[in-house]
Amino acid sequence: MIAKKMVKYVEGSSVTRAMFEEGKKMAKEFGAENVYDFSLGNPSVEPPKAVAEAMKRILDEKEPGFVHGYMNNAGHEEVRKKIAESLNERFGTAFTEKNIIMTVGAAGGLNVILKTLLDPGDEVIAFAPYFSEYNNYVGNFDGVMVPVPANIPDFQPNLSGLREKITAKTKAVIVNTPNNPTGVVYSEETIKELSSILEEKQQEYGHAIYLISDEPYRELAYDGVEVPYLTKYFANTIVGYSFSKSLSLPGERIGYLVIPDEVDDFQNILDAASVATRILGFVNAPSLQQLAVAECLEEKTDISAYDYNRKLLYDKLVSLGFECAKPEGAFYLWVKAKEEDDKAFVLKAKEFHLLLVPGSAFMCAGYVRIAYCVSPEMIKRSFSAFEKLADAYR
């Protein structure tokens, strides 16, 4: 008999993953070319060639015992040093290797830092719509997830809602920019106001409130939009980063945490986070991947393909009368459903072999998420299906 906590998690298993599995079944039944699967944020752009070349070179030139062996729980020191230096050059920060902990992707990093920070009953705030796994990560450590209602229609963080939601039990606030599912990039003005509110509430309640910046989509920003680096605006910021999207390596599970010196109770948090990697069973991030990404910090995935898809799909859906938040980053389109029940709308879309994810899975009903990290050919083939879906609501 499984644990009672797991019963809840199994029942609430990822809607996105369920749609992805449904897509595979439908592809067998109707033919892959006749199914339009926009469910999963799986990068469609290949990794830079330098990544594979780095892996081969490391395997050929370095001692196997080093490449495949254990290291400090925080990760290879030389890897962490290179990452710190790269961040300093890009953002004018002053990190060293001690501020970096290598993690098993951004998800692993979030679990490490939440394990480090949360006592039972501690509250964690996130702005709807947000990645639904946050609920599970927080619940896994007996924390309480507190959603802030969405700020419609621009989907910048609802800061008046944040002010109302912060209590004496608030331990952390999670932000994700560029955002999954909306593609919105939080503006510098928004970040400054957010920081001011957190400073004020820290003074009011007499304890630190940590801002956890979840940044797997940092490098995916369009039209010259700048993505603010949050440690420069609020001292108690901890950054979780992943190479899943920036280098198209989602299956390799490699990322890192940045824990700045300025963070309240820095040394204890740093030590606890290193121990948490072991307690959670990661022990350390994958060694080969650490070494490889350290050689590819200047590499970037060619996001022009995503930008092309973004414009192609956005323009088509708007022409059909759909209301969309124009994405500035990531690779998702956030679309208002044609009826109040977004799950019913998703089922209607499925009749035309369109696989979308309901906004209620992101704590924001009435919308759907469309992942456009797919081939442009599939997007073009899907146009007739979107036309039929629009016609069904005329």
What do you see in this structure?
The protein has helices at residues 4-11, 15-30, 49-61, 64-67, 77-91, 105-117, 133-140, 159-165, 188-205, 266-279, 287-294, 304-319, 342-351, 376-391, and strands spanning 36-37, 100-103, 123-127, 144-148, 170-176, 210-215, 237-242, 255-258, 324-325, 332-336, 354-355, 357-358, 367-371. By secondary structure, it is of the alpha/beta class. The protein folds into two domains: 4-47 and 301-391, Aspartate Aminotransferase, domain 1 (Alpha-Beta Complex), CATH 3.90.1150.10; 49-294, 3-Layer(aba) Sandwich (Aspartate Aminotransferase, domain 2), CATH 3.40.640. The protein has a seven-stranded mixed beta sheet, sandwiched between helices. Strand 12 and strand 13 form a beta hairpin. The termini are far apart. The model has no long low-confidence stretch (mean pLDDT 96).
| H/E element sequence | HHEHHHEHEHEHEHEEEHHHEEHEEEH
Whole-number average pLDDT? 96
| CATH class assignment of the largest domain | Alpha Beta
Rg over C-alpha atoms, rounded to the nearest angstrom: 21 Å
Question: Layout of helices and strands, plus pairs?
Answer:
Blueprint: H1 4-11, H2 15-30, E1 36-37, H3 49-61, H4 64-67, H5 77-91, E2 100-103, H6 105-117, E3 123-127, H7 133-140, E4 144-148, H8 159-165, E5 170-176, H9 188-205, E6 210-215, E7 237-242, E8 255-258, H10 266-279, H11 287-294, H12 304-319, E9 324-325, E10 332-336, H13 342-351, E11 354-355, E12 357-358, E13 367-371, H14 376-391
Parallel strand pairs: 1-11, 3-4, 3-5, 5-6, 6-7
Antiparallel strand pairs: 2-8, 7-8, 9-10, 10-13, 12-13
Helix pairs in contact: 3-11, 5-11, 6-10, 12-14
